[in-house]
Design goal:
The complex is a heterodimer of chains A (284) and B (280). Chain A is built from twelve helices and ten strands. In chain A, strands 6-7-8-3-9-10 form a six-stranded mixed beta sheet, sandwiched between helices. A four-stranded antiparallel beta sheet of chain A has the order 2-1-4-5, with helices on one face. Chain A is globular, with a radius of gyration of 20 Å. With 284 residues, chain A is of the alpha/beta class. In chain A, helix 8 links the parallel strand 7 and strand 8. The longest helix of chain A is centred in the last third of the chain and has 18 residues. In chain B, the strands form two sheets. In chain B, strands 6-7-8-3-9-10 form a six-stranded mixed beta sheet, sandwiched between helices. In chain B, strands 2-1-4-5 form a four-stranded antiparallel beta sheet, covered by helices on one side. In chain B, helix 7 links the parallel strand 7 and strand 8. In chain B, helix 5 packs across helix 6. Chain B is globular. The chains are: A alpha/beta (284), B alpha/beta (280). At the A-B interface, helix 8, helix 9, helix 10 and helix 11 of A face helix 7, helix 8, helix 9 and helix 10 of B.
């Protein structure tokens, strides 16, 4: 197999405020055209990893160890300006909340074509043509109207489609999708998941998919990294983790998920000793 | 009917339609279009639907927090549709809500002690502060909430703790009917499991009737006996969870069920399209 698009090795981070560990020895990789799920409960560190990849960590988090290798370069040691160009042009983000990711005071057209004008040097007409094509590709039926709309005039699903179009606009090699469907209804979620999958396959994009939903991981990810307290608990092909979970925590998590195909019953929460074991391992 | 604790019959609710400040008419939106539900004592009933289906409005109708434009709401055999607030008050203790975001419904300037004991004094369930506090401590114990929480403010607790405080506040009043509106949607799965188990054992012990509103069919399946599927202000299907989940009759119910990703590898799930999706 060719070299992965993104490789993270031994990534460690601490909080600037109290030196508390946030990430410890996190390693993962994503291949071209594949999806790597980052899954865990709140505080597991999944979003921090996403932000580290995009170079948008808050000042309160300091990276203490590790390498993030993308396109043959270590993002953590690159000077700011080339880093900005590389990330801006070749990495994209699909955020969780499309309402706060879009500027409420600008029409969709401008927001969708910013990248095309800035990085590709397209003029207004050419950028508009590309934008229409992109909106068509994300199955928006009335692209002309959407381009003229303000974010509040669109439904949640439409806004998320517009953001997906924006993410794919520059043909990025890597997309970080941070809980992209958490705010959506299930029927819309399924359409969006299917769309991201189809676009990714068509463009050969690698995707880091951050989610707390094990169901979503099982259906859309090729590989998965399960995190707890900033550490990798289990990692591998998605099918392996769901069919033969190795860690007690993984098994417990799968057990406690409410599922519509199981009759009314008490759930088995993660046993306290499993959590205690994980905490001891993490040294907190 | 004798077994029903609470019932809504052919309820319509519309918002808007009034005059605006400068004379124009605001658009009238029908949120509920003739909805009937009934909940028996000791029964947990799920109300499921997507955003805009009217599920939250329906819950509020049952508690009479929203006025109906047509239809009837009954509580314990009494018509409460137009009951004046003074006559509602003694019933209010018996019908308690728990909402989605406990941070939004717990007063940020009050200590947890005040939040949980004040309703007890207001409704005369406890005769004085010391009795109210003793009751609170007992239930905190049972809910695995450290009693130190009593001196804290809502923002100082974790999400799961806050939700348990919300449940404790409602349970302390020994209600007959509990409305749980999306109470686990903001929580992690492990916290979710704790809260759901707590709610389950509570309804069993207190013999509560409960309306459990959620967009998540998997959660509904875990806690409910019966379910109503709501879509655009109308009930499209109702029945026991067992029959609705194993043999959904309405295409919308099928689409809803099919759209849930299960934590089990299902190779064709993503590409499988139920016929109704296009219509939805």
């Amino acid at each position: 197999m060719s070299e992965p698009v993104l490789t993270v090795r031994g990534l460690g981070a601490v909080s600037e405020r109290d030196r508390a560990p946030i990430l410890h020895d996190v390693s993962l990789s994503v291949n071209r055209g594949e999806t790597r799920g980052l899954v865990g409960e709140s505080g597991a560190g999944k979003s921090t990893i996403g932000k580290a990849i995009l170079g948008i960590l808050p000042r309160t988090v300091r990276v203490t160890a590790g390498v993030i290798r993308f396109e043959g370069q270590d993002l953590l040691t690159m000077p700011a300006e080339p880093l900005r160009r590389l990330i801006g042009e070749r990495v994209a983000l699909i955020p969780q909340d499309p309402m706060s990711a879009l500027n409420p005071g600008r029409r969709i057209e401008g927001q969708l074509t910013d990248g095309l004008r800035l990085w590709r040097g397209l003029d207004g007409a050419a950028a508009r043509k590309t934008a229409l094509k992109l909106l068509d590709e994300v199955q928006i039926r009335d692209p002309e109207r959407v381009l003229k709309s303000y974010p509040h005039e669109l439904s949640g699903g439409m806004r998320q489609r517009a953001l997906i179009a924006a993410a794919f606009a520059l043909e990025p090699r890597l997309i970080v999708a941070d809980e992209p469907t958490t705010a959506l209804d299930v029927t819309v979620q399924k359409q969006i998941l299917r769309l991201v999958r189809a676009m990714q396959r068509a463009h050969g994009t690698a995707v880091v998919f951050i989610t707390h939903d094990l169901g979503v991981v099982a259906q859309v990810c090729d590989e998965v990294t399960l995190l707890f307290g900033g550490r990798v608990i289990e990692e591998g092909r998605t099918a392996d983790m769901f069919e033969r979970p190795r860690h007690a925590y993984t098994r417990a998590l799968l057990d406690e998920c409410p599922r519509y195909d199981r009759p009314k019953a008490a759930l088995r929460p993660v046993p306290a000793e499993v959590i205690a074991g994980l905490r001891a391992e993490a040294g907190r | 009917m004798t077994g029903d604790l609470i019932a809504a019959r052919d309820v319509h609710v519309a918002f808007g339609g009034g005059r605006r400040l400068f004379g124009g008419a605001s658009p009238r939106v029908e949120v509920l279009k003739g909805v009937s539900v009934r909940i028996a004592r000791k029964e947990t009933v799920g109300i499921v639907g997507e955003s805009g289906s009217g599920k939250t409005t329906l819950g509020r109708v049952l508690l009479r927090l929203v006025e109906t434009t047509a239809g009837r709401v009954e509580f314990d055999g009494q018509d409460i549709t137009r009951l004046p607030e003074t006559s509602m008050r003694p019933l209010r203790r018996r019908m308690q809500p728990i909402f989605q975001d406990p941070l939004a419904c717990l007063n940020p300037r009050h200590t947890i002690r005040r939040i949980v004991t004040e309703p007890l004094l207001f409704h005369g369930v406890a005769s004085g502060r010391s009795e109210a506090e003793a009751k609170a401590r007992r239930i905190f114990d049972r809910f695995s909430l450290p009693s130190a929480c009593l001196d804290r403010y809502p923002h100082e607790l974790s999400g799961g703790q806050r939700q348990r405080v919300g449940i404790a506040r409602a349970a302390l009043l020994a209600p007959d009917f509990l409305l749980a509106d999306e109470i686990v949607s903001g929580l992690d799965v492990s916290t979710q499991a704790q809260v759901l188990n707590l709610i389950g054992s509570l309804s069993l012990d207190l013999g509560l009737a409960m309306a459990f509103i959620s967009h998540d069919l998997s959660v509904i399946r875990t806690v409910c006996d019966r379910v109503y599927v709501l879509r655009l202000g109308e009930i499209v299907e109702e029945g026991s969870c067992e029959s609705v989940f194993s043999a959904p009759r309405h295409p919308y119910t099928r689409a809803l069920i099919d759209a849930i990703p299960l934590p089990t590898i299902t190779p064709d799930w993503l590409l499988r399209t139920p016929a109704v999706e296009a219509a939805a």
